[in-house]
Amino acid sequence: MIGFFDSGVGGLSVWRAFQKEAPTIPLLYFADQEFCPYGEKSHDELIERADKIAEFLISKGAKIIVVACNTATAAAIEFLRNKYPIPFVGMEPAIKTAALASTSKAVGVLATEGTFSGRLFNETKEKYAKGVNVIIQAGKGMVDLVENQLIGTSAAHKVLKNLLVEMIAQDVDHIVLGCTHYPFLKNDIQEIVGTEVTLIDPAPAVVRQIKRIIDKENLVFDNNEKYQFYTTNNNVSVFQQQVIQLVPITKNNTFNTCRL
């Protein structure tokens, strides 16, 4: 089994991309909704949550754990890799892709403050974005739009327009979606910035890395197409509705609450 976790349902954007490529591999998704959003948590709090969730996923049989959250990756991936013997896959800041592809030499990055303050983002920006105008914008309110099922609404457009004003003014031609919740708002963002702006979803790169690890480690999985979903929220029925709205699932699914 492969385990995925995020503060909420945002990491399903990565789960969805992998499930499309490998539909028979059993997957477990863990949404830490009681502590969502992670962008407001301290570094130590994020490590504590990631540690507890990783221990739970391993107890359930995870052979790989995907930290399907940019903020948690920035805070905890090194800790997790040092503590546990199984492979961990984190979210890479796609600023490299945007900077190298930009013709206007202006790119935007939507992410959390936790991602922007992380070592990996700043090292990547310094290495690959020299000579490129990088407009960073904390996506305040974007996680809530996805968690509260407000995708495609006027409320979503109102929040997004305010966040995208500076990027539009600076003539960006690429925008990095630096939080796994944000790809679910891709259509809303595209309507505001126009089709000439390329939106970069980091999920495909993460999927490629998972597949590389499977090949390298010669990992074998039971091909039972079983998908398990856990939340730290007591309201499992709402969680189930959120999942069904966001990803294509049909059978062999279980939904549970788990307090960690």
TrEMBL record:
<feature type="active site" description="Proton donor/acceptor">
    <location>
        <position position="179"/>
    </location>
</feature>
<keyword id="KW-0413">Isomerase</keyword>
<dbReference type="GO" id="GO:0008881">
    <property type="term" value="F:glutamate racemase activity"/>
</dbReference>
<feature type="binding site">
    <location>
        <begin position="38"/>
        <end position="39"/>
    </location>
    <ligand>
        <name>substrate</name>
    </ligand>
</feature>
<protein>
    <recommendedName>
        <fullName>Glutamate racemase</fullName>
        <ecNumber>5.1.1.3</ecNumber>
    </recommendedName>
</protein>
<dbReference type="InterPro" id="IPR001920">
    <property type="entry name" value="Asp/Glu_race"/>
</dbReference>
<dbReference type="GO" id="GO:0071555">
    <property type="term" value="P:cell wall organization"/>
</dbReference>
<feature type="binding site">
    <location>
        <begin position="180"/>
        <end position="181"/>
    </location>
    <ligand>
        <name>substrate</name>
    </ligand>
</feature>
<feature type="binding site">
    <location>
        <begin position="6"/>
        <end position="7"/>
    </location>
    <ligand>
        <name>substrate</name>
    </ligand>
</feature>
<feature type="binding site">
    <location>
        <begin position="70"/>
        <end position="71"/>
    </location>
    <ligand>
        <name>substrate</name>
    </ligand>
</feature>
<comment type="similarity">
    <text>Belongs to the aspartate/glutamate racemases family.</text>
</comment>
<dbReference type="GO" id="GO:0009252">
    <property type="term" value="P:peptidoglycan biosynthetic process"/>
</dbReference>
<feature type="active site" description="Proton donor/acceptor">
    <location>
        <position position="69"/>
    </location>
</feature>
<dbReference type="InterPro" id="IPR004391">
    <property type="entry name" value="Glu_race"/>
</dbReference>
<keyword id="KW-0573">Peptidoglycan synthesis</keyword>
<dbReference type="InterPro" id="IPR033134">
    <property type="entry name" value="Asp/Glu_racemase_AS_2"/>
</dbReference>
<comment type="pathway">
    <text>Cell wall biogenesis; peptidoglycan biosynthesis.</text>
</comment>
<comment type="function">
    <text>Provides the (R)-glutamate required for cell wall biosynthesis.</text>
</comment>
<dbReference type="InterPro" id="IPR015942">
    <property type="entry name" value="Asp/Glu/hydantoin_racemase"/>
</dbReference>
<keyword id="KW-0133">Cell shape</keyword>
<keyword id="KW-0961">Cell wall biogenesis/degradation</keyword>
<dbReference type="GO" id="GO:0008360">
    <property type="term" value="P:regulation of cell shape"/>
</dbReference>
<dbReference type="Pfam" id="PF01177">
    <property type="entry name" value="Asp_Glu_race"/>
</dbReference>
<dbReference type="InterPro" id="IPR018187">
    <property type="entry name" value="Asp/Glu_racemase_AS_1"/>
</dbReference>
